[in-house]
Each structure stands twice: as structure tokens, then as C-alpha cells.
Amino acid sequence: MNLDQLRAIRKDKLKIKQICAGDRLSKQHVHFIFERAIQHFKGDLMLWIQYLDFCEKTGAKKIFSKIIARALQIHPRESGLWIRAAAFEVESEVNLPSARILLQRG
Q1: How many folded domains does the chain comprise?
Q2: pLDDT digit string (tens) for 25-44?
Q3: Structural domain of residue 36, as residue ranges?
């Protein structure tokens, strides 16, 4: 993730606006690393939250929705995850009935 930040800083200094293949590949690699870590450490809630933060930061909405669903299956008693899922439905997907259902389940 630090490498991705350094690439963004370097692109700003060089005033490069074009998205290159390396940008996309580095993000895919970080997603792959998070997926492997989550498979190995399913009970680590902070790892799930870090992955969700990374998805929000990079704008990966589809991956975010899949990850939040998996996190809620494994950690159904964590109220923060339910609230975060409902907030995602309201802010990103603009789906109020779905957010209401998520909050009621939580």
C-alpha cells in the first residue's frame, strides 16, 4: 500500500495524469494479498476492516460489497460492520430499503 502511495506522489510531481498499467496491477496485487490473508486469518476483525478501508480508498465498490458480505457472515455480532454495510448502501448505492434491512438484521 505504501508503494501505491509513493507511485501517486511521483505521478503528482511529474504531473502525469494518465493511468498506466502499473497502477492497476499494484492495486490488484494488494487485493490478492488481502484475499490470501483473510482466508488464513478469518477471525481477525482488524484485517477485515483494513481491507474494507483499502477498497473504499481505491473505489472498488463491487469488491467492497462482496467483502462486507463475507465479513458479516463470519462476524455477525459486530455492530460496526452492520453499520458500515448500511452506510455503504446509503452513500454509494443509494438504496435506502436495503440499508434499512441491514440495520434491522444487525
Answers
A1: 1
A2: 888 999 999 999 999 999 99
A3: 2-105
